[in-house]
Amino acid sequence: MDVLIGLLIIAVGSFCQSSSYVPINKVKEWHWESFWLVQGVFAWLVFPLLGALLGLPRGVGLFELWSAGGAGMSIVYGILWGVGGLTFGLSMRYLGVALGQSIALGTCAGFGTLFPALFSGTNLLEGDGLILLLGVCVTLAGIAIIGYAGSLRSRNMSEEEKKAAVKDFALTKGLLVALLAGVMSACFALGLDAGAPIKQAALDGGVDGLYAGLPVIFLVTLGGFLTNAAYCLQQNWANKSAGDYAKTSVWGNNLLFCALAGVLWYMQFFGLEMGKSFLTDSPVLLAFSWCILMALNVTFSNVWGIILKEWRGVSAKTIAVLVLGLAVLVFSLIFPNLF
Fold it and tell me: What is the pTM of this model?
């Protein structure tokens, strides 16, 4: 029962993340770099900080807790992850919600799951390590099938239809950006791993396991914010778009939808940490939890892609391939429990 509860919590967080790009469509009269920066304030600073406060032992401050060890490396990995987060947003711009998230999150799922295991000395060719490796392979197979469905969609659509579904559609550029986003985004998992002493200190201080990892998440997102803020401000300067922030007539609307996008995005990691606390009796599932989150993100993002009509006009074969890929992803969630 605990495993089911943990998976459901992760799934709720994943659904929120996959929905986080929908409010962006409601932002008015701002360039991409402007709304990306403002939603990032909420996604990577405001809400992670509020979450971190839930993981504080009684009578202990954040800086005191972070002194337990690993804070610096968590921020460094966060800065690297920020490159992934930045290019992740660009992959949505060039490929759309469905295909962009599928490629980026697929790469992120593999590297983000296997890197921490390798760094901890896990042998991926035997025992639990082999199960973990096979589980990642099943997940990547599902994502590869979805990627193939995306390529079929591209072939079946005219240039006008591509632009109608995704305004700045560019397949080659989008694929390269999405792959870079996936590799760099895997650094988030490494940042969480680096902050393990902080999480342990929170547990030792009496913090419930549901919240003990939240102070580490803030350190990683803080690093990511630094990367994204630097790029967005540079783009504001280069594109002469800093005037966006002076458009007071749209501030109420844009602030609302950026805040909504931010809290929805943050919920994936809030849910991941809460869900992992129910998986402690299953070491393989615990190690596989990152891959589970990414697989669910891909699944829900493609559901949103269908709702937003990004798959409109494609052939029945393309839809069948997409459904097959989603089915393989769903199977990957239960695969580790079969052993």
Answer: 0.80
